[in-house]
């Protein structure tokens, strides 16, 4: 009807690229520290890979980029 208010869902923004890493979905109880411990990555590296992330306000279901460490072996 004329004047009726409707809600139009917003399209989800595309995932930012995660070069040299992989995506991880935050689970209940996760912190950047525990995620970093699990994947052997320090918190600052996770923050650097996720511009705009609020390390004090992770949300369950939030998808973040976990950078991979490159190891070069010399023989």
Mean pLDDT over the residues: 86
What is the CATH superfamily classification of the domain at 23-67? LysM domain
CATH class bucket of the domain at 23-67? Alpha Beta
Give the C-alpha Rg: 18 Å
Q: What is the end-to-end distance?
A: 76 Å
Task: State the helicity in percent bands.
Answer: 10-25%
Q: Unreliable segments (pLDDT under 50, ≥5 consecutive)? A: none
What is the architecture of the domain at 23-67 at the second tier of CATH? Roll
> Which fold name fills CATH's third level, the topology of the domain at 23-67?
Membrane-bound Lytic Murein Transglycosylase D, Chain A
Q: Quick one: biggest sheet?
A: 2 strands, antiparallel
- Which structural category do the helix and sheet elements fall into? alpha+beta
Count of alpha/pi helices = 2
The secondary-structure element order is EHHE
Shape: elongated
Tell me the strand order in the biggest sheet.
1-2
Total count of strands: 2
Explain what the structure shows.
This protein is of the alpha+beta class and 75 residues long. The protein has a domain at 23-67: LysM domain (Membrane-bound Lytic Murein Transglycosylase D, Chain A), CATH 3.10.350.10. The protein has helices at 32-39, 43-49; strands spanning 21-25, 63-67. The chain has a two-stranded antiparallel sheet with strand order 1-2. It is elongated and about 65 Å long. It starts with 20 loop residues before the first strand and ends in an 8-residue tail after the last strand.
